[in-house]
Amino acid sequence: MDTVDIIVKKRDGGKLDDEEIRYMIMRYTKGDIPDYQMSAFLMAVYFKGMDKGETTVLTDVMKRSGDVVDLSCINGIKVDKHSTGGVGDKTTLIAGPLAASCGVPVAKMSGRGLGFTGGTIDKLESIPGFKVSVERENFIEQVNTKGIAIIGQTGHIAPADKKIYALRDVTGTVENFSLITSSIMSKKLASGSDAILLDVKCGSGAFMKTQKDAEKLASMMVDIGNMSGKKTMAVITDMDQPLGRAVGNAMEVKEAIQVLKGQGEHDITELSVYLAGIMIYLGQKAATVEAGIKMAFHALRNGRGLKKFKDLITAQGGVLDIIDNTDLLPSAGVSLDFKAYDDGYINKIDAMRIGIASQHTGAGRFTKDDDIDFAAGIYFYKKTGAEVKRGEVICSVYGNDVKKVKKALEEIKSAVKITREKPEQRKLIKKIVR
Q1: Of these residues, 83, 183, 193, 272, which one is catalytic?
Q2: Architecture (CATH level 2) of domain 3-49
Q3: What pLDDT does 365 receive?
Q4: Whole-model pTM?
Q5: Catalytic residue of the set 22, 108, 146, 168
Q6: For the chain, which ranges sit under pLDDT 70?
Q7: For the structural domain made of 79-323, what CATH number should be given?
Q8: Which of 361, 341, 340, 346 is nearest to 409 (CA)?
Q9: Other CB atoms closer than 10 Å to residue 20's CB: what's the count?
């Protein structure tokens, strides 16, 4: 089998057979195919695409490139949740404990953030003492006894994806349906859960800018999940403005605590409860999605979700006092305010630009080796649709480097639009894909 022949076949729009896909992925993962040839292959796939059969094989090969985790020792139906990436998206910190408090075992392996989307593991690491690396035996025991564990992904889960994604990131081949699907689903299928919930974002702060594209991606992932024996569902949700008020690791942990105390912003509360409800349904603790949502809402109101979050923190070595004293979380030494430049209504808060601004503060990474400033980020006092007066503070920018904070502030100036007319309210939860 010849590498160049496979590249040319896909370049000319041909359908690759199973062995050709396996050859390219496994040989590249082992180091037998150089980066320049894999770059050419990825570019051919980017422009010519893959059909459903090719995408299914690609996902399976990437899944099998490393460990396939066995979680059969954990009692019950394990439900995993994945977001395609967003700005201010701390739903895992809320939906996970809510679902676990209703009897769904949550055994989650999460990633770190790269680019303008935050990683759940970075958020958890902002909690003093919290350990994101747990031995397999302890991980299983924790889920069986506490109902929830969230740890970092190991390098043994889908190593082909890790190597290929790094190449896609520097060759402009990230935004392709088949490549995104195989990247996400190879890791989810290898992580050992019995059911999968996908939160597929659409809007300025998402890979998929339109609902149509988000639905196409969601359908591909749901089909592959179900064909692989995992009950899979997806929710299409809005990411045209940041979710909640906080963007930044420690600040998002604070906001998650507020939500679990019943004091959170409406959008982040609504979405977290909705996602938890579907997890409860997938875990067969509710007969319908609607019943699952009601159970999640009750778990929020009666404090069981907050108690489960406390169990998570305690089990993984975190300082529990942060629940009642969030000042124990990392705090920034520099802050600057962004103020309304006119009277009117906030018409738009561009999520992507806000994400980039949060990177500038130090809350996100530009490369995988960048250090995170856990205290850095942005906090919004006003969201889209709010009426503002000239000079009124819309958001505050935090960090520990004044130059970085000023650079973030400049980015925010082009992200917020004020108009005389009040904008129509956007729908947060757009569609379920079964």
Answers
A1: 183
A2: Up-down Bundle (1.20)
A3: 80
A4: 0.94
A5: 168
A6: 113-118, 155, 368
A7: 3.40.1030.10
A8: 361
A9: 20
